[in-house]
Amino acid sequence: MTNENNGEIKGDMPKLEATRIYGYSPYDIEQMREVPLTLNRDDFIVFLNSIADKYPFMVIMGLRVLKEITVKEILKQEGIPYNEKKDTLSPLLIKLRDKKVISEGMYNSLNGLVKLENTAAHGYEISVDWARLALNTIPDNLNDLRKVANQI
Fold first, then answer.
1. Which of 1, 75, 128, 137 minimizes the number of CB atoms within 10 Å of its CB?
2. pLDDT, tens digit, for every residue of 72-84?
3. Which residues of the chain, if any, have pLDDT below 50?
């Protein structure tokens, strides 16, 4: 497997069976995916604020998880189908926009930090300033999203 051509991955990806090496069977992995994460959003934001100076990449990852949970809740509420295991955040946001659940402006706000979230997810350094910006932006965007969805 090589990383060439603008980041495109070539070659075969490891099979799920390889997870047995680490102590988990494919069945264990599938079971973990079947249990949705529940969070007390307010407590979670407080926690993320408490670690922002030391672990800014974890703040971004936590906000990404919170955003995806919120978007999926609204898709379910609106009866908009999606693939739980294959659809990533950007296509989920596109579904909300295309079904007129959110405006183009709200889509741009929610999608605006996806590149930063992806950067953190791939193990690159995130500055404390970016983590603080995300903490000051994403929770408000998600509250606006919930308000819009509740008015439909």
1. 1
2. 999 999 999 999 8
3. 1-11, 13-14, 16-19
Q: What rounded mean pLDDT belongs to the chain?
A: 82
Token pair in block for residue 30: 């599938």
> For the packed helices 56-78 and 114-121, what is the interaxial angle rounded to 10 degrees?
120
Amino acid identity of residue 115, one-letter, is K
Strand partners, 3: 9
Give the ranges where 53-99 is alpha helix by DSSP (H): 56-78, 89-98
Q: Which residues of 21-40 are buried (b: 16+ CB within 10 A; e: fewer)?
A: eeeeeeeeeeeeeeeeeeee
Residues 48, 126 contacting (CB under 8 angstroms)? no
User: Token digits for 93?
Assistant: 């946001």
Residue 4 phi, psi dihedral angles, 5° rounding: -130, 175
Closest CA to 52 of 117, 103, 126, 107: 126
